Amino acid sequence: MAEAMDGPRVENYAIQGVTPGGLERTMDLGVRDGSLRNLNPATIAVSATAADRLGVRPGDRLRLTLGDGTPISPTVIAVYERGLGFGDLTVSHDLLAAHVDDPRGVVLIAGTPPAGLPTTDAASLAETTAATNAEVNQVAMALIIAFTAIAVVNTLAMSTSDRAREFALLRLVGTTRRQVLRMLGWETPAIVAVAAVLGTAIALATLTAFSAGMTGGAPHVPPLGHLGVLAWGALLAAVATVLPARLAMAARPADTINTRE
Q1: Which of 88, 124, 146, 205 is an S-S bond match for 50, by CB 3.0 to 4.6 Å?
Q2: Sheet harboring 2-6: ordered strands across?
Q3: Domain check: are 89 and 160 in the same one?
């Protein structure tokens, strides 16, 4: 970690040390401005997000304080796009090695590594990390969806059951069960449509703010994934409305009127 001065504020940024030799074959940072050719203990590369926040570009000096309290002022030589995957600050390994507990880190080698050297191929490392993160995200998303589904079903089922007296009155004045269910069949899609519009708007506003703060761009929402969430929500709404309605109309209308206040 490194601390950077952003006006009166002090911000923490993830920093990584790399070996400049052969860097273009072991790591693709997505350089947007400048070049990594002159990366040495006196220079630094900065992610686009950090560069925008700190107001620096190639040629500027960046005042930093490393994790052990050592102040440095390297010259920015490059701005790169892939800060989320590789960290916001990239310096020479020689600069960072003297200020960390374990300077060995992870060795990335393009091609066949020497025998006996504990190395990690860049592609394998990226694939393993991505798979681990994907599993964690899927478990978290599954829990969120499960709790949301329980809340939706519980709310709709209770609200429908509470209308038992209303259904009984409709049946006493001549409305059939099929007509009551048809009425609910129109109400449910209307509720789902309103919920879909409001939910999409709230989620889009939140994602847009988060994405703008993290990457400076717009969020990516997979169309099929979005439609799938809406479809499952509509299915849950239908089930949580029809089944309680049938149970509420199972008794004779007169009995329902007499037993409920």
Answers
A1: 88
A2: 9-13, 2-6, 64-66, 71-72
A3: no
